[in-house]
Amino acid sequence: QVQLVESGGGLVQPGGSLRLSCAASGSAISIYWMGWYRQAPGKQRELVAIITSNSGTINYKDSVKGRFTISRDNARNTVYLQMNSLQPEDTAVYYCTMGGTVWGQGTLVTVSE
Q1: What is the rounded CA–CA span in Å between residue 52 and residue 87?
Q2: Contact at 8 Å (CB) between 74 and 28?
Q3: Are the C-beta atoms of residues 70 and 64 closer than 8 Å to each other?
Q4: 96 close to 36: Cβ distance less than 8 angstroms
């Protein structure tokens, strides 16, 4: 059974940083595109960043460009999301996905004073 487990969320002040990790088990991520999505309270889930299998193509939601960085380590079967200059509007549950078909349980990021 394929599983994705996110970690690294928490409470951070505006301007702070967090690094999310998504560890996969039961399947190698190397052949899949991987992505991070988020869902804020009362809002629909939205794409934050995606990365192709060989890291050749990376795309970001406009509002996180220059602040967030997605990366992957296929040898460790893990995907990361480095988030800098966090703002209150970044508050959400962040989900990792493998190819859009397997999803993690999410990790909560709260940006607040």
Answers
A1: 27
A2: yes
A3: no
A4: yes
Using CA atoms, how far residue 34 sits from 9, 70, 78, in Å, is 18, 9, 10
For residue 5, the surrounding DSSP H or E stretch is strand 3-7
3-class SS at 39? Answer: strand
Per-residue pLDDT of the chain (113 residues; tens, 9 = 90+): 899 999 999 999 999 999 999 999 999 999 999 999 999 999 999 999 999 998 889 999 999 999 999 999 999 999 999 999 999 999 999 999 999 999 999 999 999 99
Q: What distance in Å separates the CA atoms of residue 58 and residue 68, rounded to the nearest whole number?
A: 11
Q: For residue 70, what are the β-bridge partners?
A: 81
What are the φ/ψ torsions at residue 97 (nearest 5 degrees)?
A: -135, 145
